Prior knowledge:
This protein has 11 helices and no strands. The protein is mostly helical.
Amino acid sequence: MASCERNVVFDSSLEEKEVCLEPLHCSVQFDHNILKWNYFCGSAKTIKNSISMQMIGVLIGSAMFGQISDSFGRRKSMLVTMAGMAIGWILVAKSYDLTLFTVSRTAVGFFTGGSISVLNVFIMENIPKKHRMWINMAITWSPNMLPLAAMAWATGDWRSLALLNAIVCVPGLLFCFLCIHESPRWLIHCGKIAEAQEIMRREFGSSKEETVNDTLHKAVRNEYEMMLRADSQKRRYSFCHLFYTPKLAITTIVLAFS
Length: 258
């Protein structure tokens, strides 16, 4: 909110100490649901609770899709998360009260958290080490705040912004469906050697080049044998092992809130 009648400018730093006026004839920089549903002053705590629920959805999605991608593949998991985000944003735009808004935004957070966890692993498995850091820094929250602010300015209200977010998901969904292959490393880990070799042939050389075929075959076999040796020497881990010891649990919590 920018200001209300009688030239009273809203100061967000005052929180609940501000003089609460009935929001008539208010000018706004962005038409948000807080104004539509009259969540001001004491009732503003309800908005904060809604945001907390949305972030819980992000945490649960990150945890679940890490396991789902290990079981069903990176590509399928990314398709599900992007489709879920697109549908979730449409439901957000159709929300008529705070309860439905919270549920739909929590669903968006669930699939967003899943997308983050799967995408990071997919990048690690498909990009050379020297390019991993800058790509991980580029595909994250901070660099995308600028285009998101531009989208909010262009739309002017929360429903239109939600629909635009849904539209933005569509190109990524189509690109992943048409152009992205499954992670060869995941295929090798699952014992799908022939499929991994075929993907690597398409990426690195023609199927008629014997030298390329021999090199890829040896690389895939070596990777598979290394994974077999590693699996025979260590136990399988899950998300729960991040909290297996007090020291590891503290480290995980600190990193999560950093």
